Amino acid sequence: MALDPETFDALIDTVRRFVSERLRPLEGQVEADDAVPADVVREMRDMGLFGLSIAEEYGGLGLTMYEEARIGIEMGRTTPAFRSTFGTNVGIGSQGLVMAGSPEQKAQWLPRIANGEIITSFALTEPDVGSDSGAVKTRAVKDGDVYRLTGTKRFITNADKADLFTVMARTGEEAGGRGVSAFLVPRDLPGLSIGEPEKKMGQKGAKVADVIFDDVPVPAANRLGAEGEGFRIAMRVLDRGRLHIAAVCVGVAERLIADCVVYATERKQFGKPIAEHQLIQGMIADSKTEALAARALVLETANAKDAGKDVVMESAAAKYYASEMVGRVADRAVQIFGGAGYIADYGIERLYRDVRLFRIYEGTSQIQQIIIARETLKRGG
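Predicted structure:
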């Protein structure tokens, strides 16, 4: 159920001021420390950001997809690591539980996920399994009232601080996704270990690491849905997650465009601000047009999802277009800033590195193309 307009407007205003007044001044510190300050995390918890998509009965805000997308756009106007701090709780880390969890599972976990006491993570990718997500090799073997998990997951966001993992593991002998099941796996189970965080191109402050399962005894009660339903659950989770990421891409693009306008208005060459040069105006116009198109696609798709429509294709299209769009906008921003765009002081080069990941995680652009084409052919146009 959507919030009443006045309440939602107040929430948007609060998040917008939090981003501009609290988070943006900390961007350089997060980059240098490769960490989000603990006091900022506490403030996010107090604002309810960890429970945006979780129902009110479990302590969340219960936002619609449209409302969540609007928040994602606002959070995109600062370093992506801030959004990632609570993003897995809102998205892929909790949505398997929201969509497929039993009443008992939801009551046990969702209230603590919503208030940020528990940090969640989504463990699908493996060393040899990325885009072909139905080919997971991690195994879950039934042993009485537990499943014993063995395998390794790779590039798992928030693995370093997660308390609860949604893990996809093979329980059957069927090839492909039909043999995959989903499990809620607490971090403190014996045999579970976390690798060292990876050194990355960008998005400092948001860590990824391996999660290793060595005969981890997971209670059978922690399985999400029936055996063999894990792949379907994962795909449903990713449909929503892709729309959320697309919204963040729109926000980053809008931030970059605003920074370009300020810089181009102040920077002078050939006796006038560079904003008055037509070639600069052309880059700004292209960026603005593409950002507006992405925003419209994201919000229209979010409304369609809230209406109960099948948005598999539309979510893929939104993620594909928005993530590619923000890469082009970031590239133009570096060009408009010139030498300054290549220097860390202005933050443009940092965002240029940060946005590169959007075209890869939660399904590469090429995977989105496959989904879009498959769904278009299925629908007959």
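Summary: The CA atoms of residues 131 and 363 lie 7 Å apart.
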